[in-house]
Amino acid sequence: MSASQNATPPIIQMKDIEKHFGSVIALAGVSVDVFAGECHCLLGDNGAGKSTFIKTMSGVHKPTAGEIIFEGKPLDFADPRDAITAGIATVHQHLAMIPLMSVSRNFFMGNEPVKKVAGLTFFDHDYANRVTMEEMRKMGINLRGPDQAVGTLSGGERQTVAIARAVHFGAKVLILDEPTSALGVRQTSNVLATIDKVRKQGIAVVFITHNVRHALAVGDRFTVLNRGKTLGTAKRGEITPEELQDLMAGGQELAQLEGSLGGTV
Amino acid sequence: MADTPQIDERIKEISPLRRALIRPELGGIVGTFAVFTLFALFAFDSGMFNSQGVMNWSIVSAQFMIIAVGACLLMIAGEFDLSVGSMIGFAGMMIAVFGVVLAWPMWIAIIITFAICCALGALNGWIVVRTGLPSFIVTLAFLFILRGFTIYIPQTIERKTIIGGIRDAAEGDWLAPIFGGKIGQPIFQWLGDIGVIGVFERGTRAGQPVVDGIPMLIIWAIVLIIFGHILLTRTRFGNWIFASGGDAEAARNSGVPVNKVKILMFMFTAFCATVLAVCQVMEFGSAGADRGLLKEFEAIIAVVIGGALLTGGYGSVIGAALGALIFGVVQQGLFFAGVESSLFRVFLGVILLFAVILNTYIRRIITGER
After folding, report:
1. CA closest to A165 among chain B residues
2. Which domain holds residue B198?
3. Residue A222 neighbours by CB under 8 Å, 6+ apart
4. For domain A2-97+172-261, is the CATH number 3.40.50.300?
5. pLDDT at B5
6. How many domains does chain B have?
7. Chain B closest-CA separation from residue A242 CA (Å)
8. ipTM of model over 0.85
């Protein structure tokens, strides 16, 4: 692994992770480490084991074998809530956003700020609205108001709200599960810019994608998964898009295909 | 690409009209104005707006309001309860069985009835969240199960479908007046004395005002509306209600206890039905096996007129209360205006259709769908 020359230890280390589902081996010994303030891209084709891997990282699955070390200590999460409390947040493909509700209500869903009035506990709307507007402005999104419904936001803006929410609630490791896969060109560039902002705040970003160009735009290091195994981690500048693409497809077959497609994939 | 400056998404200006449109209460407010204007024009001299008339449609509206509050919160949480009407009949019958047939003290009968009905609401909710079946089907089953028991129990033990004598059994009880009593009698007496409201001219009640107090039914309606509105808009639990109905899966991912929210809302709906049932049996002095027939649909209609979406995640308790008010005023107003009462159902169907079309349109504005 190329990370050894870094002075600070990685914030999260996944060592020889194996995950079996019955007779199916989804992960056959995957090792990845992520540093604070870096964007680590996890690439792989469909069925490569990306989803299983991040679900193991975020506490949804328990690894069959292998070790996870988070901030120097071995981890043993009982469920995803533990991982979230520890600071590992996941922004899923299917966003945890409710279109009919306002941005501010969505932002604090499940973590509502409260104030006491005459001994009763109330939702602190003023605080929620103020924080939402502030956090969204930091991410470069100007809302009409905190009561604007999420349904009126574009796909990219929704991703940004979800990322801003995870950051606000103290994420140290932010796992983004294909945040750009369903977006247009401009919205994609907005989300990539958001990833860049988050990384600069010192948060470790794990960016899952199968689009090499999106990965190369923001990634510091790239790990390619294929058939439940890692094909190694490369640093930025050490690898060309073509090499990455070949690794993802497992080399051979795509090389033949590319001839007929003229290198457009 | 990472260095591309953030491009501001275009912010479309929305007109104040559209902004007002996406408030769920709008339909209810407009409808309330329309209904009162209409009856003020065509039925002003009919007695609808004297003290007795006002009390008449207020009581009918309050009955709708009590069940509409429960149905509203449940619908926003993404579920229906079709067993509300049967629950009203069942709860009333339980009061009669415990308080009259078994001759328990009325306050024990009332408390046990509330416990049983809330437990049945919880059972409804538990089945819905555990099986993942539509609440429409589960509560439809309970509509028949509860109505069946409501007829079977009094027939088996008393050989009749109406049990009376509740007013005598409740005499001197401390809890019963909270449902069947009236408040504000001295104020109404004074209003009668100074001639603001009419007094009886002769008979045993000569000199007493024609309206002698506000029934607890109305107080319950107001309290439940205020409670429901604050719960929904001002508490974190309210946020969970919206979230559970808006997208249960997304809410779960964010740590909202969706199942708990839904079961509690089923219990609250059952609680509201029981409140209405107890108020009714205390007023009538009897429990009938056919009480509450079709109330579940009336509750749902009031909620929909009030701007809630049938699909959940959006709505307002104030809106539902206005929907119930429209309901009560029109039902009684047609009677005062001397219109054939069967036309009320025609009105109901038409206004329901309009409300649903308007709500669907509003939903498109909010979510930006085309």
Report:
1. B254
2. 48-167+187-365
3. A40, A41, A43, A215, A216, A233, A234, A235, A236, A239, A244
4. yes
5. 38
6. 1
7. 18
8. no
